[in-house]
Amino acid sequence: MFCVIKSAAQKVPSAPMLPLVISVKQKLGLVWSSGALWKEQRTFASTTLRKFGFGKRCLQTQIMEEVDCLMEKLEKFGSKPFDIQDTLNASVSNVICSFLFGKRFEYEDSTFKRLITLLHNLFTTTNVSSPVVIFPVLRFLPMFKVTTIRKIVNDIYEFIKEKIEEHRQNFDESNINDFIDAFLLEQTKKVENSTFTDEQLIITIKEFFAAGTETTSTTLRWALLFLIHHPDWQTKLQRDIDEVIGQGHPTMEHKDQLPSVEAFTLEVQRLANVTPHAAPHAPTEDFYYKGYFIPKGTFMIISLDSVMNDPNIFPEPHKFNPERFLNDRGVCGGEQKDKLLPFSAGRRVCLGESLAKMELFLFLTRFLQKFRIKPENPDCVPPLEGTLGLTNFPKSYNLILLKR
Length: 404
Ligand code: HEM
What we know:
Its cofactor is heme. By secondary structure, the chain is mostly helical.
């Protein structure tokens, strides 16, 4: 994979520090940790995800319950134009909140609403390839909004700390309900130099909460926008879904019977390119790559973008063409599917990949079963242009959902 390599942002003078740099320097959580800590914590996180149903049938049921709550809420908009962002974010976030905190939140819950907004602001104001990451001195300029970002991160931490404290108060080791409980149980083992510290817990929750909400929700918002731009594809997908499922609940067993839905989703992921820079990494040892010397500790930004738009893999890369993922028999697969890397690759591949794929399929299929998605103004369709923050997100837009 082609890598863009930027100079190290290691020597950072006194406060206020860039939150991204603080995260990197803490070396805690999953995204910014490495070595033995990362290995132990990644194993623990994936085991706990599986224990609470990831990849199992019960998770599907939980996601579908959330999808149904969302559909009910959306029906209330009638045929009025509205921006779906906050409602969709809340719904997607609830899936990960159930795993982390053992509960979902009402969309109207004011604390939850505020948290979702903070998270969205964090994703839209932070950019890993921003000049301020390379030249930390720029953080003093108001345009880089460092103080705003710091405040957002602190507020998110406060919410998480509160939830951990509630769990600590009610902790019962014979009743482990969610990720926080499972982590607190590990803490009771009192292992010397344990990686299960309070700080590690807070940061991991923040990362799960952030990674599990904005990425998936942003991909869905792109998918709705592509459906608005390509009503022919909307008709095709609806026809296929009507034939295979009708109005019954979609399940993952339907996915293979709906190759068009998968091909459409893959093409959206390719063009929307929600995480074009994956997560930055730094090598722990000096090494050579294609003749370039890369010293230990270099801040490296991985360009997934270069893969998604590689004309050797995806001919006419800027053209929306889900057919590229379908073979002559209409089956979704082949080299192009294998080479698409929206979740990155290797040992650091996205931990939530299977959950995200499940969510994308179930949310999108239900949307198409329930609604015809239309632009607010057919003469002025919102642009398919992204803005780069921590994710590549579409500009805010209004849509109309017409009940089918
Ligand atoms: C469409 C949705 C998603 C996309 C496009 C996506 C993409 C990514 C990418 C590109 C990375 C960086 C991999 C690297 O470092 O090279 C990543 C890491 C990660 N993602 Fe996702 N993600 C999505 C959904 C989720 C969900 C739902 C979760 C929650 C369970 C999640 C949890 C994580 C975690 C914990 C990491 C850090 C893994 C590690 O460094 O060991 N992601 N994701």
